[in-house]
Protein backbone atom coordinates (compact mmCIF):
# COMPACT_ATOMS: atom_id res chain seq x y z
CA UNK A 1 0.00 0.00 0.00
CA UNK A 2 1.51 3.31 1.01
CA UNK A 3 5.26 3.37 1.13
CA UNK A 4 7.77 5.90 -0.08
CA UNK A 5 7.78 4.89 -3.71
CA UNK A 6 11.11 5.10 -5.45
CA UNK A 7 10.59 6.04 -9.05
CA UNK A 8 13.10 4.42 -11.37
CA UNK A 9 13.94 5.50 -14.87
CA UNK A 10 12.56 2.94 -17.28
CA UNK A 11 12.66 2.64 -21.05
CA UNK A 12 8.99 3.01 -21.90
CA UNK A 13 8.02 3.52 -25.50
CA UNK A 14 4.73 5.27 -24.80
CA UNK A 15 4.83 8.78 -23.42
CA UNK A 16 2.45 11.67 -23.36
CA UNK A 17 3.34 15.22 -22.52
CA UNK A 18 -0.31 15.97 -21.71
CA UNK A 19 -2.44 14.42 -19.00
CA UNK A 20 -2.89 10.68 -19.57
CA UNK A 21 -6.27 9.75 -21.04
CA UNK A 22 -5.71 6.01 -20.81
CA UNK A 23 -3.39 3.44 -19.27
CA UNK A 24 -1.93 0.22 -20.62
CA UNK A 25 -2.21 -2.81 -18.35
CA UNK A 26 0.67 -5.26 -18.70
CA UNK A 27 -1.40 -8.03 -17.13
CA UNK A 28 -0.18 -11.18 -15.42
CA UNK A 29 2.41 -12.04 -18.06
CA UNK A 30 3.76 -10.70 -21.34
CA UNK A 31 4.08 -14.19 -22.89
CA UNK A 32 1.55 -14.24 -25.73
CA UNK A 33 1.32 -18.04 -25.91
CA UNK A 34 -0.05 -18.12 -22.34
CA UNK A 35 -2.84 -15.59 -22.96
CA UNK A 36 -5.46 -18.06 -24.36
CA UNK A 37 -4.72 -20.55 -21.56
CA UNK A 38 -5.06 -17.86 -18.89
CA UNK A 39 -8.29 -16.68 -20.54
CA UNK A 40 -9.84 -20.14 -20.18
CA UNK A 41 -8.58 -20.56 -16.58
CA UNK A 42 -9.87 -17.18 -15.36
CA UNK A 43 -13.13 -17.52 -17.30
CA UNK A 44 -13.78 -20.80 -15.47
CA UNK A 45 -12.87 -19.17 -12.13
CA UNK A 46 -15.27 -16.29 -12.84
CA UNK A 47 -18.11 -18.63 -13.87
CA UNK A 48 -17.61 -20.76 -10.74
CA UNK A 49 -17.53 -17.59 -8.61
CA UNK A 50 -20.82 -16.31 -10.04
CA UNK A 51 -22.51 -19.71 -9.93
CA UNK A 52 -21.38 -20.49 -6.38
CA UNK A 53 -22.26 -17.12 -4.87
CA UNK A 54 -25.56 -16.67 -6.71
CA UNK A 55 -26.47 -20.25 -5.81
CA UNK A 56 -25.69 -19.61 -2.14
CA UNK A 57 -27.78 -16.41 -2.15
CA UNK A 58 -30.73 -18.22 -3.77
CA UNK A 59 -30.47 -21.15 -1.35
CA UNK A 60 -30.51 -18.84 1.68
CA UNK A 61 -33.29 -16.71 0.24
CA UNK A 62 -35.67 -19.62 -0.42
CA UNK A 63 -34.89 -21.82 2.60
CA UNK A 64 -36.95 -20.80 5.68
CA UNK A 65 -34.61 -22.42 8.21
CA UNK A 66 -31.72 -20.30 6.90
CA UNK A 67 -33.50 -17.01 7.66
CA UNK A 68 -31.17 -16.19 10.57
CA UNK A 69 -28.68 -13.34 11.19
CA UNK A 70 -25.72 -15.59 10.33
CA UNK A 71 -27.04 -16.30 6.83
CA UNK A 72 -28.22 -12.72 6.41
CA UNK A 73 -24.58 -11.63 6.74
CA UNK A 74 -23.45 -14.49 4.51
CA UNK A 75 -25.82 -13.30 1.77
CA UNK A 76 -24.22 -9.87 1.80
CA UNK A 77 -20.72 -11.38 1.85
CA UNK A 78 -21.63 -13.36 -1.28
CA UNK A 79 -22.90 -10.16 -2.95
CA UNK A 80 -19.64 -8.38 -2.12
CA UNK A 81 -17.63 -11.30 -3.56
CA UNK A 82 -19.64 -11.19 -6.79
CA UNK A 83 -19.02 -7.48 -7.36
CA UNK A 84 -15.44 -7.73 -6.07
CA UNK A 85 -14.58 -10.28 -8.75
CA UNK A 86 -16.71 -8.59 -11.44
CA UNK A 87 -14.83 -5.32 -10.92
CA UNK A 88 -11.67 -6.89 -12.38
CA UNK A 89 -12.58 -10.10 -14.25
CA UNK A 90 -14.37 -8.79 -17.41
CA UNK A 91 -11.62 -6.25 -18.19
CA UNK A 92 -8.94 -8.86 -17.53
CA UNK A 93 -10.63 -11.46 -19.75
CA UNK A 94 -10.93 -8.97 -22.62
CA UNK A 95 -7.26 -8.02 -22.29
CA UNK A 96 -6.18 -11.67 -22.53
CA UNK A 97 -7.50 -11.77 -26.11
CA UNK A 98 -6.79 -8.16 -27.09
CA UNK A 99 -3.61 -6.69 -28.49
CA UNK A 100 -4.44 -3.27 -27.05
CA UNK A 101 -4.74 -3.84 -23.30
CA UNK A 102 -5.93 -0.38 -22.32
CA UNK A 103 -8.22 1.12 -19.71
CA UNK A 104 -9.44 4.72 -19.80
CA UNK A 105 -8.41 7.22 -17.14
CA UNK A 106 -12.02 7.42 -15.92
CA UNK A 107 -12.34 3.64 -16.01
CA UNK A 108 -9.16 3.32 -13.97
CA UNK A 109 -10.48 5.67 -11.28
CA UNK A 110 -13.82 3.84 -11.26
CA UNK A 111 -12.05 0.50 -10.83
CA UNK A 112 -9.98 1.92 -7.96
CA UNK A 113 -13.13 3.24 -6.27
CA UNK A 114 -15.03 -0.04 -6.53
CA UNK A 115 -11.98 -2.02 -5.40
CA UNK A 116 -11.38 0.07 -2.26
CA UNK A 117 -15.09 0.24 -1.44
CA UNK A 118 -15.64 -3.51 -1.68
CA UNK A 119 -12.36 -4.32 0.04
CA UNK A 120 -13.31 -2.29 3.12
CA UNK A 121 -16.86 -3.61 2.96
CA UNK A 122 -15.54 -7.17 3.16
CA UNK A 123 -13.25 -6.18 6.06
CA UNK A 124 -16.14 -5.11 8.23
CA UNK A 125 -18.61 -7.69 6.90
CA UNK A 126 -16.28 -10.39 8.20
CA UNK A 127 -16.08 -8.43 11.45
CA UNK A 128 -19.88 -8.34 11.71
CA UNK A 129 -20.01 -12.09 11.11
CA UNK A 130 -17.44 -12.63 13.89
CA UNK A 131 -19.60 -10.57 16.27
CA UNK A 132 -22.62 -12.65 15.26
CA UNK A 133 -20.73 -15.87 16.15
CA UNK A 134 -19.69 -14.29 19.46
CA UNK A 135 -23.32 -13.57 20.34
CA UNK A 136 -24.46 -17.04 19.25
CA UNK A 137 -21.84 -18.92 21.30
CA UNK A 138 -21.25 -16.64 24.29
CA UNK A 139 -24.83 -15.40 24.77
CA UNK A 140 -27.09 -18.07 23.21
CA UNK A 141 -30.10 -17.29 25.44
CA UNK A 142 -30.13 -13.62 24.39
CA UNK A 143 -29.06 -14.19 20.77
CA UNK A 144 -32.46 -13.76 19.11
CA UNK A 145 -33.37 -10.67 21.15
CA UNK A 146 -30.01 -8.91 20.78
CA UNK A 147 -29.37 -9.79 17.14
CA UNK A 148 -32.58 -8.11 16.04
CA UNK A 149 -33.42 -7.30 12.43
CA UNK A 150 -32.70 -3.54 12.82
CA UNK A 151 -29.29 -4.26 14.38
CA UNK A 152 -28.38 -6.69 11.58
CA UNK A 153 -29.35 -4.10 8.97
CA UNK A 154 -27.15 -1.52 10.72
CA UNK A 155 -24.24 -3.98 10.88
CA UNK A 156 -24.36 -4.58 7.11
CA UNK A 157 -25.12 -0.97 6.17
CA UNK A 158 -22.06 0.47 7.95
CA UNK A 159 -19.49 -1.47 5.86
CA UNK A 160 -21.08 -0.30 2.59
CA UNK A 161 -21.26 3.35 3.68
CA UNK A 162 -17.79 3.42 5.24
CA UNK A 163 -16.24 1.65 2.26
CA UNK A 164 -17.89 4.09 -0.17
CA UNK A 165 -16.69 7.09 1.84
CA UNK A 166 -13.08 5.91 2.01
CA UNK A 167 -13.16 4.84 -1.65
CA UNK A 168 -14.40 8.30 -2.67
CA UNK A 169 -11.67 10.00 -0.64
CA UNK A 170 -8.93 7.83 -2.17
CA UNK A 171 -10.18 8.41 -5.73
CA UNK A 172 -10.34 12.18 -5.18
CA UNK A 173 -6.71 12.15 -4.02
CA UNK A 174 -5.70 10.04 -7.04
CA UNK A 175 -7.55 12.35 -9.45
CA UNK A 176 -5.48 15.30 -8.17
CA UNK A 177 -2.27 13.60 -9.33
CA UNK A 178 -0.80 14.33 -12.76
CA UNK A 179 0.19 11.48 -15.07
CA UNK A 180 2.33 13.15 -17.71
CA UNK A 181 4.95 10.48 -18.30
CA UNK A 182 4.71 6.74 -18.97
CA UNK A 183 1.21 5.28 -18.95
CA UNK A 184 2.02 1.58 -18.53
CA UNK A 185 0.69 -0.03 -15.35
CA UNK A 186 2.58 -3.16 -14.38
CA UNK A 187 -0.49 -5.01 -13.14
CA UNK A 188 -3.71 -6.63 -14.37
CA UNK A 189 -5.95 -3.93 -12.82
CA UNK A 190 -5.61 -0.33 -11.65
CA UNK A 191 -3.87 -0.90 -8.33
CA UNK A 192 -2.55 2.02 -6.30
CA UNK A 193 1.13 1.00 -5.81
CA UNK A 194 2.00 0.56 -9.53
CA UNK A 195 -0.25 3.50 -10.47
CA UNK A 196 1.58 5.84 -8.09
CA UNK A 197 4.88 4.88 -9.70
CA UNK A 198 3.69 6.61 -12.90
CA UNK A 199 2.71 10.01 -11.52
CA UNK A 200 4.86 13.08 -11.91
CA UNK A 201 3.21 14.73 -8.88
CA UNK A 202 4.19 14.63 -5.23
CA UNK A 203 2.57 11.50 -3.77
CA UNK A 204 3.20 12.23 -0.08
CA UNK A 205 -0.44 13.09 0.75
CA UNK A 206 -1.80 10.14 -1.23
CA UNK A 207 0.65 7.69 0.32
CA UNK A 208 -0.06 9.02 3.80
CA UNK A 209 -3.81 8.64 3.22
CA UNK A 210 -3.27 5.07 2.02
CA UNK A 211 -1.10 4.27 5.02
CA UNK A 212 -3.59 5.72 7.52
CA UNK A 213 -6.54 4.03 5.79
CA UNK A 214 -4.78 0.66 5.68
CA UNK A 215 -3.67 0.93 9.28
CA UNK A 216 -7.05 1.95 10.68
CA UNK A 217 -9.26 -0.36 8.63
CA UNK A 218 -7.09 -3.45 8.48
CA UNK A 219 -6.19 -3.25 12.16
CA UNK A 220 -9.68 -2.18 13.27
CA UNK A 221 -11.57 -4.93 11.46
CA UNK A 222 -9.02 -7.56 12.47
CA UNK A 223 -9.26 -6.48 16.12
CA UNK A 224 -13.04 -6.94 16.03
CA UNK A 225 -12.54 -10.48 14.73
CA UNK A 226 -9.72 -11.36 17.14
CA UNK A 227 -11.51 -10.01 20.23
CA UNK A 228 -14.70 -11.85 19.25
CA UNK A 229 -12.82 -15.13 18.87
CA UNK A 230 -10.90 -14.70 22.12
CA UNK A 231 -14.22 -14.63 23.98
CA UNK A 232 -15.54 -17.47 21.80
CA UNK A 233 -12.58 -19.72 22.62
CA UNK A 234 -12.80 -18.89 26.33
CA UNK A 235 -16.49 -19.85 26.30
CA UNK A 236 -15.83 -23.06 24.35
CA UNK A 237 -13.08 -24.11 26.76
CA UNK A 238 -15.59 -23.86 29.61
CA UNK A 239 -17.87 -26.41 27.94
CA UNK A 240 -17.29 -29.74 29.71
CA UNK A 241 -18.41 -32.18 27.01
CA UNK A 242 -16.19 -32.73 23.97
CA UNK A 243 -19.32 -33.06 21.84
CA UNK A 244 -20.46 -29.59 22.90
CA UNK A 245 -17.02 -28.15 22.15
CA UNK A 246 -16.97 -29.71 18.68
CA UNK A 247 -20.46 -28.39 17.95
CA UNK A 248 -19.46 -24.87 19.05
CA UNK A 249 -16.25 -24.98 17.00
CA UNK A 250 -18.15 -26.19 13.92
CA UNK A 251 -20.37 -23.08 13.95
CA UNK A 252 -17.38 -20.78 13.43
CA UNK A 253 -14.98 -23.06 11.51
CA UNK A 254 -16.11 -21.84 8.07
CA UNK A 255 -15.80 -18.19 9.07
CA UNK A 256 -12.31 -18.74 10.50
CA UNK A 257 -11.19 -20.43 7.26
CA UNK A 258 -12.51 -17.55 5.13
CA UNK A 259 -10.91 -14.94 7.43
CA UNK A 260 -7.53 -16.70 7.38
CA UNK A 261 -7.50 -16.92 3.58
CA UNK A 262 -8.69 -13.34 3.02
CA UNK A 263 -6.50 -11.57 5.56
CA UNK A 264 -3.51 -13.80 4.81
CA UNK A 265 -3.54 -12.75 1.16
CA UNK A 266 -4.07 -9.10 2.12
CA UNK A 267 -1.06 -9.03 4.44
CA UNK A 268 1.08 -10.61 1.73
CA UNK A 269 -0.21 -8.14 -0.87
CA UNK A 270 0.16 -4.89 1.08
CA UNK A 271 2.84 -5.39 3.73
CA UNK A 272 5.68 -5.16 1.24
CA UNK A 273 7.65 -2.25 -0.26
CA UNK A 274 6.19 -0.82 -3.46
CA UNK A 275 8.99 -1.48 -5.92
CA UNK A 276 8.99 -3.24 -9.28
CA UNK A 277 9.97 -6.62 -7.86
CA UNK A 278 7.29 -6.53 -5.16
CA UNK A 279 4.64 -5.55 -7.73
CA UNK A 280 5.47 -8.69 -9.72
CA UNK A 281 5.20 -10.82 -6.59
CA UNK A 282 2.04 -8.98 -5.58
CA UNK A 283 0.27 -10.01 -8.79
CA UNK A 284 0.18 -13.63 -7.66
CA UNK A 285 -1.08 -12.70 -4.21
CA UNK A 286 -3.70 -10.40 -5.78
CA UNK A 287 -5.00 -13.35 -7.80
CA UNK A 288 -5.67 -15.20 -4.53
CA UNK A 289 -7.39 -12.18 -2.96
CA UNK A 290 -9.47 -11.09 -5.96
CA UNK A 291 -10.26 -14.40 -7.69
CA UNK A 292 -9.54 -17.45 -5.53
CA UNK A 293 -11.06 -16.19 -2.27
CA UNK A 294 -14.46 -15.15 -3.76
CA UNK A 295 -14.57 -18.43 -5.69
CA UNK A 296 -13.92 -20.63 -2.64
CA UNK A 297 -16.05 -18.77 -0.07
CA UNK A 298 -19.40 -20.36 -1.10
CA UNK A 299 -17.86 -23.83 -0.92
CA UNK A 300 -16.19 -23.13 2.43
CA UNK A 301 -19.50 -22.06 3.94
CA UNK A 302 -21.44 -24.87 2.23
CA UNK A 303 -19.20 -27.90 2.73
CA UNK A 304 -18.51 -27.14 6.40
CA UNK A 305 -22.03 -26.13 7.37
CA UNK A 306 -24.64 -28.75 8.32
CA UNK A 307 -27.62 -26.41 7.78
CA UNK A 308 -26.50 -25.48 4.26
CA UNK A 309 -25.73 -29.11 3.35
CA UNK A 310 -29.13 -30.20 4.63
CA UNK A 311 -30.84 -27.41 2.65
CA UNK A 312 -28.95 -28.53 -0.47
CA UNK A 313 -30.06 -32.14 0.07
CA UNK A 314 -33.69 -31.00 0.38
CA UNK A 315 -33.43 -28.98 -2.85
CA UNK A 316 -31.86 -31.87 -4.78
CA UNK A 317 -34.41 -34.33 -3.36
CA UNK A 318 -37.27 -32.10 -4.50
CA UNK A 319 -35.70 -31.71 -7.94
CA UNK A 320 -35.25 -35.47 -8.31
CA UNK A 321 -38.83 -36.03 -7.13
CA UNK A 322 -40.13 -33.56 -9.71
CA UNK A 323 -38.11 -35.22 -12.49
CA UNK A 324 -39.42 -38.67 -11.49
CA UNK A 325 -43.03 -37.44 -11.47
CA UNK A 326 -42.59 -35.87 -14.92
CA UNK A 327 -41.07 -39.12 -16.21
CA UNK A 328 -43.99 -41.17 -14.85
CA UNK A 329 -46.53 -38.79 -16.41
CA UNK A 330 -44.70 -38.93 -19.74
CA UNK A 331 -44.65 -42.75 -19.73
CA UNK A 332 -48.34 -42.99 -18.74
CA UNK A 333 -49.32 -40.71 -21.61
UniProtKB/TrEMBL annotation:
It comes from Canis lupus dingo (dingo). Putative odorant or sperm cell receptor. It is a multi-pass membrane protein. The keyword Cell inner membrane does not apply. Residues 52-301 form the G-protein coupled receptors family 1 profile domain. Belongs to the G-protein coupled receptor 1 family. It holds the Pfam family 7tm_4. The chain crosses the membrane at residues 37-59, 71-90, 102-126, 151-173, 211-236, 248-272, 284-303. Keywords: Cell membrane, G-protein coupled receptor, Glycoprotein, Membrane, Olfaction, Receptor, Sensory transduction, Transducer, Transmembrane, Transmembrane helix. SUPFAM superfamilies: Family A G protein-coupled receptor-like (SSF81321). GO terms for cellular component: plasma membrane. One of its GO terms (molecular function) is olfactory receptor activity. It is found in: Cell membrane. InterPro entries: GPCR_Rhodpsn, GPCR_Rhodpsn_7TM, Olfact_rcpt. This is Olfactory receptor. Gene3D superfamilies: Rhodopsin 7-helix transmembrane proteins.
